Amino acid sequence: MFLAVFFGFHTIALSLAFFVDPSSSHGAAALGLLEEARHHGTWNAKVANLERGSWDTIIFGDSRTHAAVDPTDAAWADGATYNAAVARTTTRETGELVEVALAHSDPKHVILILSLDHFDHFDAGLPGADAPGPPTRALETQLQLALGWPGIRDSWETIARYSAGIPGKTAPLGMRRPRPAFDTRGAFAAVFRRKADQSGRFSFGDDRWAALERLIAASVADGADVDIAVSPLHASLLDGLALLGRWPDYLEMMRRLARLQDECIARGEPVTVWNFAGFEGPNSEAIPEAGNLAPMRWYFEASHYRPEVARAMALRMRGADDDVPAEFDARFGERVSGANVESLIQRLEGERAAYQRRRPEEVEFFLREARSTGWLPESGEDPGSHQ
């Protein structure tokens, strides 16, 4: 009796997950009418869409790119355009997605929006850390969806969203849909605590750098132009990385990107490196007071910028400088190479010192939240401080 109930339950879960396909994992026999209600932001969904589509422009990145880059916006769109960004990915996982993309499309343009997190090697030495990505992740996700409560829950939630006319979290072309209003200051605090908690395990991985070089080489060999963009961050978080002792890692990333740019130029490869991070303009938009549910103009919270910022990035990379909003000066989207990287770093350090003088309350806000995690001392000099 027990076995009959057990297998009956899992048969129902498997069938429901297969036909509803709540995370847009396969699409083969799934019910097409549920497409808008599905969540298209999972690893499996991105792999499936890269396999099914023939894309001219593909944009890779992490949760920031996922939330901000609208592939239907004319500033980004150049032919069939897809947002292939997946949250919490490093260059290794991104490289696996690029392999899938190049195997099924011949993109003219590959865009990679990078953050320092892309080079994090915190999982080094863990079981399965270097296992192949897409097949393992796909199987794991499918089993989680199909063989138990997650499959039934997500499937019924998808059906309920469809019945209510509510779309899924991520649109079919890969961009996360806007979230409802929330306490922005509280979200800043949560990001600060999470970054502080992560800082203790951060390790700049040379294998992550090698993965970046491989994915660029593969894209160029396939005939694609490649743009590499250093992601914007809110000034409070960029300053916070320094306060957590990660500023040397950040500068190492910038210097390596500059060397990579010079090497690509020397080989005649169509690769361009851009920097969109800094402490001025929209990147230093004032943090709202507690309880203020009014959205910020340029940022969702400290780590995630809005589509308006992403659009300015796209316009800069397309050379449409006259169309970039006036709030973004020429420093937003500066090209990076060996010729200017040291002056760029010097400018960033000067901007950071000016930001700390201009917004001491935001600096203290970060320190207070970071200290609550135990990663910063309650008193004394903080790592990387300019004060």
Walk me through the structure:
Strands 2-1-3-4-5-6 form a 6-stranded mixed beta sheet, with helices on one face. Strand 1, helix 3 (63-68) and strand 2 (81-83) form a beta-alpha-beta unit. With 387 residues, it is α/β, with parallel strands linked by helices. The protein is globular, with a radius of gyration of 22 Å. It has a domain at 180-371. Residues 123-138 and 380-387 have low confidence and may be disordered. It is built from 13 helices and 6 strands.
Topology, number of strands = 6
Average pLDDT taken over every residue: 85
How much strand content do the residues show? 5-15%
State the major sheet: 6 strands, mixed
Distance between the termini: 70 Å
Helical stretch count?
13
Computed structural class: alpha/beta
Strand line-up across the major sheet = 2-1-3-4-5-6
Multimeric status of the protein: single chain
Which blocks of ≥5 consecutive residues have pLDDT under 50?
123-138, 380-387
What is the H/E string?
HHEHEHEHHHHEHHEHEHH
Shape, principal axes of CA atoms: globular
Query: Percentage of helical residues?
Result: 40-55%
Q: Taking Cα atoms only, what radius of gyration do you get, to the nearest Å?
A: 22 Å
In short:
The chain is an alpha/beta fold and 387 residues long. It is 47% helix and 7% strand. The chain has a six-stranded mixed beta sheet with strand order 2-1-3-4-5-6, covered by helices on one side.
